[in-house]
């Protein structure tokens, strides 16, 4: 990948995170998973994005290395692991986009119980 296209990809990912909406587009998050960790960066989840991106890149590098060495068994094993990580990345990006902006903390003052008995 040329340096200019890499810069464009980085600028695109950063610019998408500048505008914080209440909900992210799940389809766009899944589409950005074509880039390693792209969906996670889109949903402002940087640590999982870095972990997924580095894992996908490392698996791809070693799969290519074993391909060049004609070690088919190791290459295929790494490609299956890469497919698993890619599937996890898709699912994580989809859930991250759907849950974006969700407030995890509950306000205890607004929680109440009520019992209604009817005869």
Q: What is the compact description of this entry?
A:
By secondary structure, the protein is mainly alpha-helical. It contains 5 helices and no strands.
List the helices and strands and how they pair.
Layout (H helix, E strand, L loop, with lengths): L2 H16 L7 H6 L6 H5 L3 H23 L3 H27 L21
Write structural notes for this entry.
The chain is mainly α. It has one domain (3-100). Helices cover 65% and strands 0% of the residues. The chain has helices spanning 3-18, 26-31, 38-42, 46-68, 72-98. Helix 4 runs antiparallel to helix 5. The termini are far apart. The model is unreliable at 17-21 (pLDDT under 50). The chain crosses the membrane at residues 45-64, 76-97. This is DUF5683 domain-containing protein. Keywords: Membrane, Signal, Transmembrane, Transmembrane helix. Residues 1-21 form the signal peptide.
Q: What descriptive keywords fit this protein?
A:
5 helices, single chain, 119 residues, transmembrane, 0% strand, mainly alpha
Largest sheet: number of strands, sense, barrel closure: none
Relative helix content:
55-70%
Shape: elongated
Count of the separate structural domains: 1
Distance between the termini: 73 Å
User: Which stretches are low in confidence, meaning pLDDT under 50 for 5 or more residues running?
Assistant: 17-21
The mean pLDDT is: 78
Tell me the structural class.
mainly alpha
What's the count of strands?
0
Strand content: under 5%
Whole-angstrom Rg:
20 Å
SSE pattern, N- to C-terminal: HHHHH
Give the helix tally: 5
